[in-house]
Amino acid sequence: MRIRLLAVGQKMPGWVEAGYQEYSKRLPADFQLELVELPPGYRGKGADPARAMRAEGDAMLAALGKNEQVIALDVQGKHWSTENLASHAENWRMQGRNVSLLVGGPDGLDPRCLQVADQKWSLSALTLPHPLVRVLLAEQLYRAWTLLQGHPYHK
């Protein structure tokens, strides 16, 4: 199974790159995490945020593979514990489908991305900076994988 993190934003700070890489490199080939960075829509002076979000949505929808399980990271999504994530990951693996996790830009995900999502997941009731979400997702996927392997990493 391949898990792709489709995330709006490029040129992340070094700490984001290091944190993401630390956990993604620990995952085995059959639970691979791949980061796909998508360009943010233009948000300069006088720009229309809806137009920027639509451009981000166009890029995200174009990046989706066929027959992928699509999980939208959204504030209105369900809250999952680490154990829930491990259970979902095991189900994804058993279905034999690749997974795409969608992380929007500063204004969130384009509504079209939410519509194509098979599931909506909220990481927290807190507002998290999008660069931190990359690190958090990589760490939690690693933690879920260790649970599936019987390791006590969750303690």
From TrEMBL:
GO cellular component: cytoplasm
InterPro entries per the UniProt record, alphabetical: Alpha/beta_knot_MTases, RlmH-like, tRNA_m1G_MTases_N
Cross-referenced SUPFAM superfamilies: alpha/beta knot
Pfam families for the chain: SPOUT_MTase
Coiled coil: none
Keywords per UniProt: Cytoplasm, Methyltransferase, rRNA processing, S-adenosyl-L-methionine, Transferase
Reaction equation(s) it catalyzes: pseudouridine(1915) in 23S rRNA + S-adenosyl-L-methionine = N(3)-methylpseudouridine(1915) in 23S rRNA + S-adenosyl-L-homocysteine + H(+)
Entry's EC annotation: 2.1.1.177
Main location per the UniProt record: cytoplasm
Domain of life: Bacteria
Record's subcellular location: Cytoplasm
Gene Ontology molecular functions: rRNA (pseudouridine-N3-)-methyltransferase activity
Positions contributing to S-adenosyl-L-methionine binding: L73, G104, L123, S124, A125, L126, T127, L128
UniProt subunit comment: Homodimer.
Similarity remark: Belongs to the RNA methyltransferase RlmH family.
Function field: Specifically methylates the pseudouridine at position 1915 (m3Psi1915) in 23S rRNA.
Protein name: Ribosomal RNA large subunit methyltransferase H
